C-alpha cells in the first residue's frame, strides 16, 4: 500500500517534481509542479497510483469512470482497468469542455471522475457539468495530487486525493516570479489543440 511519502518519492525518482516558474492549466503561476506524465511512463507506477486511488473510494458507488483530458486520461483508464469498469473522457475543443468521439452515458449512470492534479478544480467541475448534461450522475471525485489542500466542499460530491502538495500559486498579474523577470514555462493541457 502506498502512502503519501511513497508517492512523492515516486515523483522524485521519475524527475517529475519540478522546481522553476510554471503556468498551470488553471492559468495560475507556481514555483513547483508535479509532472504526472513522467511518473506514468512506467506501467508499474501507473498501476500503483491507481491502486492508491482505489483504496480511497467505494467501487460500488459508480459504474463508469470519466476523466477530463489530457491530465486524467492515463490514471483514469488505469483505475477503470483495475475495477473492470468502462472508461470515457471529456476534452476541450476551442476551450470548451465537451464529450466527443461518439461517447455516450446511459441515463442515470453513476460516475467516478478521475483527475491527476487538481489546482482550482476547474477541469473537474467542467467535466462534471458535461457528465450531467449527458444524463450521468457524478458520485465522487478522486485525484492523485491536490495542490490546494484546503479544498473541502469545493465539489458538490465527495472527493479524495492521494497526496496534498501545499504550494502557493499566484494569479498571473500578481506573480512574484514574473515580477523578477523569470520566464514562465506553460504546462497542462488547457488551450492545447
Ligand atoms: Zn509568473
Task: Please supply descriptive tags for the structure shown above.
four-stranded mixed β-sheet; 193 residues; 30% strand; 27% helix; six-stranded mixed β-sheet; alpha/beta; binds zinc ion; Rossmann fold; globular
- With helices defined by DSSP (H or I, 4 residues minimum), what is the helix count? 6
Gap from first CA to last CA: 37 Å
Q: Can you tell me the residue ranges where pLDDT is under 50 for at least 5 consecutive residues?
A: none
The coarse silhouette is globular
What structural class should be given to the helix and strand makeup?
A: alpha/beta
Explain what the structure shows.
With 193 residues, this protein is of the alpha/beta class. The protein has one domain: Rossmann fold (3-Layer(aba) Sandwich). Helix content is 27%, strand content 30%. The protein contains six helices and ten strands, in the order H-E-E-H-H-E-H-E-E-E-H-E-E-E-H-E. The protein has helices at 4-13, 36-39, 43-54, 73-83, 122-133, 176-179, and strands spanning 17-23, 29-34, 64-68, 87-93, 96-98, 110-118, 137-146, 159-164, 169-170, 185-186. The strands form two sheets. Strands 5-4-3-6-7-8 form a six-stranded mixed sheet, with helices on both faces. Strands 9-2-1-10 form a four-stranded mixed sheet. Helix 4 (73-83) links the parallel strand 3 (64-68) and strand 4. The chain is globular and about 50 Å long. The N and C termini lie far apart (37 Å). The structure holds zinc ion.
Amino acid at each position: 500500500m502506498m502512502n503519501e511519502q511513497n508517492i512523492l518519492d515516486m515523483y522524485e525518482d521519475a524527475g517529475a517534481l519540478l522546481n522553476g516558474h510554471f503556468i498551470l492549466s488553471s492559468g495560475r503561476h507556481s514555483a513547483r509542479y508535479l509532472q504526472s506524465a513522467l511518473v506514468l511512463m512506467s506501467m508499474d507506477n501507473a498501476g500503483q497510483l491507481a491502486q492508491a486511488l482505489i483504496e480511497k473510494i467505494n467501487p460500488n458507488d459508480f459504474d463508469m469512470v470519466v476523466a477530463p483530458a489530457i491530465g486524467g486520461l492515463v490514471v483514469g483508464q488505469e483505475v477503470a482497468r483495475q475495477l473492470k469498469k468502462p472508461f470515457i473522457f471529456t476534452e476541450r475543443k476551442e476551450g470548451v469542455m465537451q464529450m466527443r468521439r461518439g461517447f455516450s452515458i446511459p441515463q442515470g449512470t453513476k460516475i467516478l471522475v478521475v483527475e491527476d492534479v487538481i489546482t482550482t478544480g476547474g477541469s473537474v467541475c467542467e467535466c462534471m457539468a458535461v457528465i450531467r448534461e449527458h444524463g450521468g450522475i457524478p458520485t465522487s471525485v478522486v485525484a492523485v495530487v491536490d495542490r490546494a489542500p484546503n479544498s473541502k466542499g469545493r465539489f458538490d460530491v465527495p472527493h479524495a486525493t492521494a497526496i496534498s502538495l501545499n504550494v502557493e500559486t499566484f494569479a498571473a498579474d500578481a506573480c512574484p516570479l514574473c515580477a523578477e523577470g523569470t520566464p514562465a514555462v506553460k504546462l497542462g493541457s488547457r488551450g492545447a489543440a
